[in-house]
Amino acid sequence: MIKKDIFLNTQFLGSFPSHEGLPEDIGSEIAFCGRSNSGKSSVINALTNNKKMAKTSKTPGRTQSINAFSLGDRLDLRLIDLPGYGYAKVSKAMRSEWGDVISKYLNSRKSLKGLVLIMDIRHPFKDSDQMLIDWCEETATPFLVLLNKSDKLSRNKINLSLNEANKRLENCKNPFHLLPFSAANRSGTEQAGFILENFLGT
Ligand code: GDP
User: Fold this and answer.
1) pTM of the full predicted structure?
2) Under a CB-based contact definition with an 8 Å cutoff, are residues 82 and 16 in contact?
3) Per-residue DSSP letters for 49-100?
4) Cβ(64) to ligand 1 under 6 A?
5) Which residue minimizes the CA distance to atom 9 of ligand 1?
6) Residue 41 Cβ contacting ligand 1 at under 6 Å
7) CA 31 to ligand 1 centroid distance, Å
8) Is residue 57 over pLDDT 60?
9) By the 8 A CB rule, do 25 and 109 touch?
10) Helix 40-48 and helix 189-200: axis angle, to 10°?
C-alpha cells in the first residue's frame, strides 16, 4: 500500500536513448505518450506537482530520449516519459527513429502496466495516437486518455469532445479511461492519480 500523494515524491532517474539503458524491468511502470505539443511534459509536471519534473522544452535532441522517474524511493514503481511524436520540424528519418524507440520500448517492457495517452482536446485522435490505442487493444494494456488543454474550451465544448471521444473508443474491448484534463489549471489531476495508482496495482 502506498500513499495517495506518492506522485508528489517523484524522483528523476535519468534520460535514456532507448529502452536498453532503462532501469531494471521489474515491478510496475506507466508510460506517457503523446504528440509533441500535446502537453505531455506539462501533464507530468501537473501530476507530480513539480514544474521542473519533465522539462517543457521544445528541443528535439532532448525530447527523443526516454525519461524515467521513480515514485519516491520505490525503484520498482516508475513513470516513463516516452518521446513526443509528430514533431513537424524534424526530418522523416528522425521521426521514424523516434517511432522505433517508442515501439521497441512498448514491445519489450514486461513491467509496463498501463499507458497514458495525452492529446490536445482540440486536435485528438491523429494517426499516431490511434496506432497507440490499437497497440493497447492488441496487447490488452489498460490505457488512460487525457484530453488535455480543456481550459481552452467551454464546458459545452468539453462535453461534445468527450462524447466524440467516447464514440471513437466504443469498440475497444480493453479497459480504458477517458478524462478531460488541464495541466494549466490542474483539473483532472486527482482522478488521473487514482487511475494511475490502479494501473500500478498500489
Ligand atoms: P509536450 O511537447 O507534449 O511535452 O508539451 P508541453 O508540455 O511542452 O506543452 C506544449 C505547450 O502547451 C506549452 O506552451 C504549454 O504551456 C502548453 N500547455 C500544456 N498543457 C496545457 C494546458 O493544459 N492548457 C493550456 N492552455 N496550455 C497547455
Assistant:
1) 0.93
2) no
3) T-TTSS-----HHHHTSEEEEEETTEEEEEEEEPPPB--TTS-HHHHHHHHH
4) no
5) 39
6) yes
7) 18
8) no
9) yes
10) 90
Choose the residue to mutate in 33, 56, 90 for probing ligand 1, maximizing ligand atoms within 8 Å of C-beta: 56
CA of 119 to the centre of ligand 1 (A): 10
Residue 177, CA distances (Å) to 77, 114, 141, 160 in order: 21, 11, 12, 17
**Phi and psi torsions of 119, nearest 5°:** -130, 150
Task: Answer positive or negative: Cα dihedral of 153, 86, 176, 25.
Answer: negative
- Strands 143-148 and 112-120, sheet pairing: parallel
Sheet containing 74-81: which strands, arranged edge to edge? 10-16, 66-71, 74-81, 28-34, 112-120, 143-148, 176-180
Q: pLDDT-based confidence at 5, cuts 50/70/90?
A: confident
* Cell matching residue 140: 490488452
Amino acid identity at 54: A
Assigned C-alpha cell, 171: 469498440
* pLDDT tens readout for residues 75-109: 999 999 999 988 666 666 666 666 789 999 999 99
